[in-house]
Predict the structure.
Amino acid sequence: MPEPLPAAVAQAGAREVPDMHHPPQTAPGARQKRTMPGRGLDQRLVVPVMFVATFFLVVMDGAITTVALPSIARQFGVSAAGSDSVVVVYPVCVGITIPLSGWLGDRFGGKPVLLVAMGLFTASSALCGMAGSLGQLVVCRGLQGLAGGLLTPVVGAMLFRTFTPAERVRTSRIMTIPQQVAPSVAPMLGGALVDGFSWRWVFYVNLPFGVAALLFGLLFLDNPRHGEPGRFDIPGLLLSGAAMSLLVYGVCEGAQQGWSSPVIAGSLAAGAALVAATVVVELRTAAPILRLRLFKDALFRDTKVVGLIGMVPFMGAMYAAPLFIQEAQGGTALQSGSSTFTEAVGVLLTVQLVARIYDRVGPRLIIAAGLFCVAAVLAVMTTVDAGTGPWAFRVYMFLLGLGMGAVFMPATVASFSNVPKADMGQASTLSSVISQLSMAIAPALVATLLITGTPGTPGTGGIAPPAAYRTVYLVLAVIALASALFALTIDDTPARRDPRGPAAPRRSRHLARRVRG
């Protein structure tokens, strides 16, 4: 059977040809790979399939739910603001389980944790669709969030453990697919489901994908173990989970309720205090639930700064564009979705190029160039007005995608360059924490700027004028420019090391053919 990925044979040369008369000995205590007869699929195929399915399901669910909020509000007789709890409860609950994901994956292996979380996510999706009240729907969305907080870090760690650093650059072409296609497809799919059926179908649509991924993983996914995680860190889990939830809630609701309101100010203050307490406790714990010592590695730390701040301009623009088309221009959800879909095309095109030049150029210059491109596009978007046509937005989004395609993959791959395989679970957990905070900051910043730039009393539901959106794009452009300058300071030497050299894949491919023959 041919290898599924171009890099799948890259390590064949590093493996000895098996001697059937003298099989290799297993070191004491080592775990052998177990494959059921008739079900042995190469894990370089199985793990990427699970990664794509998991990320597509989680990202699409988060993006598609917002489309159904007006229908949910009408169904249960509440205001649009009242139904917002359906959206807010999800990231709050995600923040509770993200810190736990690394320990669970190390303790039990990625397979059981991933499949249990996938089962809970799928079952809670069905319960969301069957909810008879807003309260029931919020509780079920909370269950979805608890499962989602485990899914993405665990499957991400499995992907990075399956491939070597040289192979990760090539597998990045797969990594970007669900993260870019799902947000673009979700608004159009959600609008079609709500208009053609009901809001319940935005949750029911998860069921076939979830069940298929669950069965596939159950049959074909291996469960290798990578060391022992140590004693369960209860204080660290309680502190970090509470800190994440309070911060995410405060950031998500700050623009709506007002940053100076007692609830929001108290939530942010308490979250910041708990973050400080988490850092103190985790650095003094032998086996912490969050291995903050990984931030001592400069490349991991700097790329995560890019992941926190540098992603805000892009995600902020993706949040602002549909709002501008629907509110400032009076377009439909379908029109806004078709006008912003080109972003995914731009990202996927750039990733193909980046994967080929990564080793020669290095992630530092690629990331910086991508962010400079994003800053330039956002600067041009400060000219938008009520007469800006859909094709102009399609071009803007496509160019924005071209820039961000040069940031997503190299920042992610470079961040894991120095991380040992035993620490992949913890590194993936920290990456998910950063990603969750960035995804909360971007819309909060945009919403705050729009509310500030809307005439009348803030929070009264007025429509932001085009000038407010121009301010949004200007602020996002400045953040992208600052991030690009910071990216130029990153020392990417460890990420550019390839001890096997460029000829290794070709030599490995010949050896692989000889072994199969």
Q: What stands out?
A: DSSP finds 18 helices and no strands in the chain. Confidence is low (pLDDT under 50) at residues 1-38, 498-517. The longest helix spans residues 165-196.
